[in-house]
Design brief:
Elements lengths: L13 E7 L6 H9 L6 E8 L5 H11 L3 E6 L4 H11 L4 E4 L5 E2 L3 H12 L3 E3 L2 E5 L4 E5 L4 E2 L1 H6 L9 E3 L13 H13 L2 E3 L7 E5 L8 H15 L4 H18 L6
Parallel strand pairs: 1-2, 1-4, 2-3, 6-11, 7-12
Antiparallel strand pairs: 4-10, 5-12, 6-10, 7-8, 9-11
Helix pairs in contact: 7-8
């Protein structure tokens, strides 16, 4: 008997985990892009990580407005701790992530669940658009159609705002370190064997690039990457150096500006 599409399976529930910290300017747009998904069997877990602006009030407002919103508040512990709180609270069969300043296309989850059914994959990702604070389109990131662990060592092809995985892979947590997203998805792909992208180049998510963001510090980011290769993944120095070259090459390609 053919497997039912997750998009049609009443047992499928996607837990979307969103850390919130001083995000009153962008939180509604991000949350609304989740609640407006064409696949509506989801819960949106908003973890207010000790915000000092009006974010907590917005989280409570969203929870009152839509029963699918789960409001959690905790003392400030950073994004990794907030995501881990969300993972512990999640009830879903599938897990996805979105930060409180990024947003999705309405068909994002539906297309990914359908792709997972078609391929049997337990991890799925998508193309996304990098957007400046003033609304300018900076670049579009279209990863390979399929990646395995070795290919992921060369670059994080899974933007955290696009990734979704089947919880049957087993539980996981974010480490409090630079490039924690990358370490997390390395683990997911290693366990799954491979991951697939939704076909087509149309972006399904939008990543807000903030001026002066931590990720903009390229030297620091390179140091984080080297530490991951040597200390987390246990690669030899020559092998780490080879993958480091791949990482640098891909980082430059990913930031290639949009041409008109």
């Amino acid at each position: 008997m053919a497997a039912r599409s997750p998009a049609q399976d009443a047992d499928t529930l996607v837990s979307v985990i969103m850390p919130v910290y001083n995000a009153e300017q962008t939180l509604r747009r991000s949350a609304d892009s989740v609640l407006a998904q064409s696949f509506g069997q989801l819960e949106l877990i908003l973890i207010d990580d000790g915000s000092r602006d009006g974010s907590a009030a917005i989280v409570e407002e969203l929870a009152r407005r839509d029963e699918r919103v789960v409001a959690v508040r905790q003392p400030n512990g950073g994004v990794a701790a907030a995501r881990n709180t969300g993972l512990r609270a999640a009830r879903g069969t599938h897990i996805a992530f979105l930060d409180s300043d990024d947003w999705w296309e309405p068909s994002k989850l539906e297309l990914q669940l359908a792709r997972m059914r078609e391929t049997g994959a337990m991890v799925c990702y998508a193309s996304y658009q990098r957007v400046a604070e003033d609304g300018r389109l900076l670049s579009k990131v279209s990863p390979p159609l399929e990646v395995d662990y070795r290919r992921m060592l060369g670059s994080n092809h899974i933007g955290n705002l696009t990734g979704i995985y089947d919880r049957r892979l087993g539980e996981a947590s974010f480490q409090k370190m630079g490039h924690e997203d990358y370490v997390f998805w390395l683990d997911r792909v290693r366990r799954a064997g491979s991951a697939v992208r939704v076909p087509g180049d149309a972006p399904l998510a939008y990543y807000l690039v903030r001026n002066g963001s931590v990720s903009a510090n390229k030297l620091r980011a390179a140091g984080w990457q080297w530490r991951i290769y040597r200390q987390v993944e246990g690669l030899s120095a020559p092998r780490a150096a080879w993958y480091m070259l791949q990482y640098i090459r891909h980082a430059l390609w990913k930031r290639k500006p949009v041409t008109t």
